[in-house]
Every structure is written in C-alpha cells, then in structure tokens.
Amino acid sequence: MDSRITLISRDHSYLNHILYELRDENIQQDRLRFRANLEKVGEILAYELSKTLTYTPQEVTTPLGKMEMNLLGDQPVILSILRAGIPLHNGVLRFFDRADNGFISAYRHHTQGNEFIVKVEYLAMPELAGRDVILIDPMIATGRSLVVTYQQMLEFGQPASLMIGGVIASEEGLDYVLRNIPQANVFVAAIDKELTAKGYIVPGLGDAGDLAFGPK
Question: Which pLDDT score is estimated for 11?
Fold first, then answer.
C-alpha cells in the first residue's frame, strides 16, 4: 500500500464495530445512529491525524511538581465537503475544538448515462496559506470531488500540509486522488475494491448524505 495512505481500522479494533453498523442496511435506517457513528469515526480519525502534526514542549505545574509535555501549537483547519461531510466534520471538530473551519458545496452533475462532472458552487473558508489542512469527504469513490475541491481551495492559499480524512475509499479513488494531489496524506477507515458503473463504492454503505439527512 502507498505510504501516503493510512488505514486506521485494524483487526480487534472497536472501529470495525462502528464500520459494521454504518454498513448494515438495517441499522443504518436509524439516521440518528448513523450520524452518531460517523461522528465517532471522525473522532478516531482526528486522533490518528494528530500524530502527524507539530508539537512543542511546554512546562506544566501539578500539585506535586513540574514536568514538560509536548503540546500542539496551531490547530489545523478543518474543511468539509457538504452535505455528507457534516457528521464526520463534527467528530473531528470535537477533537480539534479550537480549529478554524471551512465548507465546500461539491456535487455530481450528471450529463448523460453514467457520465458526470463535479460542480463546486459554494466555498466558505479561512486563509489556508502555510497552515495544516484536513479535508474531509466520507466516501472517496472516484476521487473526483476531492480533486476539484482541492483545486478550488487553492484560491485561499497553499497549505503547509494536506491531510484527507474519509470513512470508506475505493482503490480506484485513492489512486486518482494521489496522482492528482501527490502531496496529500490520506487517512481512511476502510478500503473497498470495486466501483459501480455509476461510481459508487461496493460494498460501501450506500449514499452517506441520504442516510444521514434523508433523500434529496
């Protein structure tokens, strides 16, 4: 596996239990539970992402003495692709609770048959130049939404580092993302092998946005 990809689920990890519930077609009908599970994955993602950030030593005084601990300096900027990214974003934000945030409206516009283009109609984000950025997209299927979003977000500056966080990715989607954004590091909970002709992950879990918020 490419060294830029971190698969955060492991055997005997509780994350696999969360993924099971997210994938199960019966359990996922409970929207509240589905959103809560996405938030849990977001917290675990944030913890794994935090291991790659920069820390500086700082002295702390306890009731019994003093010691030096490594503390995170500047928190990263969290960017999410609407609307499916919101619950995952909330989980990451619960961890990095003083982070700046940004939101991007990117969606598939179908042209003919199974063909589509990705349209971006809304961007709201802080200055990104020189900052650590986490870009969130729960389902990295074809990877095209992430690449288009990345190209658009550069209008706000070149980040110092870019981390991409997702729940489930396809092998094809990861390959596409890393070919077009070679400096990115990707953190995902699971990697599935197949895509349908319409570009949906198999076995995946379905449409994360619809399952979290209802059909559109």
Answer: 74
Tell whether 184 is covered by a domain: yes
187 closest CA partner among 52, 32, 23, 21:
52
- pTM exceeds 0.85 for this model: yes
| Number of structural domains the chain divides into | 1
Residue whose pair of structure tokens reads 């002295």 in the numeric block: 59
The dihedral sign for the CA sequence 50, 143, 213, 7: negative
Length of the chain in terms of residues written: 216
CATH, residue 165: 3.40.50.2020
Residue with tokens 């063909």: 115
Domain-located, residue 61:
no
Provide the percentage of residues in the chain whose pLDDT is more than 70.
97
Separation in Å, CA 87 to CA 35, 73, 110, 117: 6, 26, 26, 25
Domain coverage including residue 41: 5-54+72-213
**pLDDT per residue over 94-142, tens digit each?**
999 999 999 998 777 666 766 777 788 889 999 999 999 999 999 999 9
